[in-house]
Amino acid sequence: MPKLRWKIVGHLFSLLGVILIGGFLSAVLVRLAPGFDTDERELDAHLNSESVQALRAARRNDDNVLRFYVSYMTRAAHGDLGMSAALGQPVRTLLKERAPSTLRLLALGLGMAWAFTLSLALSAAWLRLSTYDHLATLVSGTFLCIPAAVLALLSILWNVSSSLAIALIVFPHTYRYTRNLLIKAYSRPHILAARARGLGEGRILFRHVLPVITAQLLSVAGVSVSMAVGAAIPVEALCGYAGVGQLAWQAALARDLPLLVNVTVLVTVVTLLANSSADILGLAWRRHEA
Amino acid sequence: MSLAQKTACLILALVLGASAAATWLAPGGYAKQDREAIAEPPSHTHWLGTDELGRDRFTRVMYGTRISLLLAPAAALLSTLLAAAIGGLAGYAGGTWARLAMAVTDLFLSLPWLFLLITVRALLPLNVSPLVSVLVTFMLLGFLGWTAAARVLCSSAASLRSSDFVRQARAAGIPAQRLFWVHTVPNLKPVLLAQFWISIPVFILSEANLGILGLGVAEPMPSWGSLLKELQGLVSIGEEPWKFVPLILLVIVVTSFQLLLSRQEEFAL
Fold first, then answer.
1. Which of A252, B98, B146, B187 has its CB 3.0 to 4.6 Å from that of B79, i.e. a possible disulfide?
2. What distance in Å separates the CA atoms of residue A152 and residue A169, rounded to the nearest whole number?
3. What is the mean pLDDT of residues A278-282?
4. What is the pTM of this model?
5. How close, in Å, is residue A176 to chain B by CA atoms?
6. Is the CB of residue A223 less than 8 Å from the CB of residue A277?
7. Sequence-ordered alpha helix ranges (H) in B84-110
8. For B236, which residue in chain A has the nearest alpha carbon?
9. What is the mean pLDDT of residues A146-167?
10. Where does the pLDDT of residue A261 fall: very low under 50, low under 70, confident under 90, or very high at 90 and above?
11. How many beta-carbon pairs below 8 A join chains A and B?
């Protein structure tokens, strides 16, 4: 048990490290980005020179990168993620409004991707027909060669849900790993012996195959969250889905750096949490099995 | 080499050859407009029709293929060299350096690839000339795509460092620099080659994604990404099927690279 506890502590530290380093990089990037020290309000002919000077003085506090970083992190710790330059709204409000849609999209997409993955990989491992295996590999390989943005466009053309597009982007990757894991597990001597003794396929799967590969499957599941999050940008942007991915895309096009950087840090934390959880659960499962 | 891999090689050679000959096969140039033929279907003068600005789609596909197929390997080379420098040296040095380099690598890897790409792309100026946008896009891919390869190279270099022949060479008093360049780097070559080949299809697909999202190569310069952007205006698949030619070509090329990749992976192992 202490090993598991240390693992959790280690993951928490790495998460904290990512937030601190990611925050620093974000602050540096925002501070050094071209156009940071300009304000379009200065072009307003209604402002007199004193007002313009006041605007410049207000920005001067942010000149020092370290000071800017400290104030950025302090504000972030209090839930103030700054204002979106393009949308004129607090970043926190924008994220709060859009995060539920993205989470729903990702949950559905991941659910479908894993349903495709498990059904195809299990049937390939059970049937042991080379034609079927080649066909399944060909289908997943074809989706692997189509850009995520094109799959999003095709989902509009075929009038299917955006979550299916996410599923089709994630599925080829998860299928490849899961199929290899299952085929390797099924070719182990004790499985061959169990089959020779006439054990049912269900019993072999649940008692002898899944327990062996669960920890690795959990790792793949963790990675699949990261893939789905990445796929959310093209899918949401092109399907007109008002989520965090679309927000990131709009921020990139408008060069709204405070918004874009905050979204990226948030997404990194989410993917790290998913990977860490998968890692810890995998370790716990291995200990349980031992 | 299997039959599928030989076919993949042949397809890649044909596509590369045809795109290299774009200047002779399509002398009009990718930006030349035919104002009498706006958004025309395929005809004997315009084999794949024209786009909304009256530009010949076949010519643009040829030039776009040339740009994507020449610059994706260039970006892959850049990222492999960076991975070799960071991952290879860190693995060879070992200890704190290796841990530090891998911590930075993990930080990059924890960011979803497309988020990282669009964030860094947005930090760079968007209103640039087409040529600069091509260079920026592919250099971005090269500079950001080294992380996964660096991880592999770090572990390969670390295992070489503790291998018997390197230990023996060290015990024989061979200087560290010679040990690295003469005994370690040549043994990393198969891994480097595999990483280079793996990166090419990844970068081709990434450029296509960036192009469709409007963050890739700027108009009027064609690339697979900017050509696929045309699919956005379609109402149904059967409406203008010739607009799918760049997609079909891209899928064929990426599949060919994937088929060749399995051979490279065999070499690397």
1. B146
2. 9
3. 88
4. 0.88
5. 13
6. no
7. 89-93, 95-109
8. A157
9. 94
10. confident
11. 119
